[in-house]
Amino acid sequence: MAGKVRKKKGIGSDGLLNDNQLAFCQYYIQDFNATQAAIKAGYSAKTAKSIASTLLTKINIQAQVNKFVNERKVRTQIDSDTVLLELLKIAKSDIRRVLDDNCGIKKISDIDDDTAACISSIEVDEIQDFDRGDKVFIGFSKKVKLWDKMKALDLLGKHLRLFGDKVEVTHDYSKLTNNELDARIRELEESESKKNFK
Question: Does pLDDT of 135 surpass 90?
Answer without folding.
Answer: no
